[in-house]
Design goal:
The protein is α/β, with parallel strands linked by helices. It is about 30% helix and about 25% strand. It is built from 9 helices and 10 strands. A 6-stranded mixed sheet has the order 6-7-8-3-9-10, with helices on both faces. A 4-stranded antiparallel sheet has the order 2-1-4-5, with helices on one face.
Length: about 240
Amino acid sequence: MANTPALEIHNLEAWYGESHVLHGVDIVVQPGEVVTLLGRNGAGRTSTLRAIMGLTGTRKGSIKVYGTETIAMPTHRIAHLGLGYCPEERGIFSSLSCEENLMLPPTLKTGQDGMSVDEIYAMFPNLAERKNSQGTRLSGGEQQMLAVARILRTGAKLLLLDEISEGLAPVIVQALARMITTLRAKGYTVVMVEQNFRFAAPLADRFYVMEHGRIALRFEAAELETQMPVLNQLLGV
């Protein structure tokens, strides 16, 4: 099992109702990698993350998580394979404190422990300081940290992060970059959807560029410089 990808997607098609949003997506992510999905708004990046979690209306093709086929599984069973999804809207509950939000999700049945609260507070000292504050009274950056911290506590080892840097101050974006570097060093696997190319560029091991629900380009981090002309054309970076 040592060579089993953390995530393997082949010929993935997905629909929301009558809308056909993904058209034969192929992605492979190895354990411990950081992979970034780039693309303009509406390219299909968020739909890909949602399809991985079983949150689109209809899916066809193959999605394997640590070697287990999930295309016919309900979302809760997919999560218990070790996935943690951090949506763009974050999903922080206003009626709960920061710490209550952190403790809300159940732990996953993965056989691996998640981060302890002490480990999480060591990684996110802002959350320790604000643990008794109402969830939606946290700053945007603190809410984003809380949204990621919450899935780390569950035992998820494959993290799907949707636009975690969007709208945040540069100092917070830098803190999130350090977080991703730390998580990779701890053996976590990360798939990021990012509009902020300058945030994603130094972090990722590999890039996939999406356009019109398809993979238009894929390349390794070492190829980034040579791919910049094409990226400029596809993304306008």
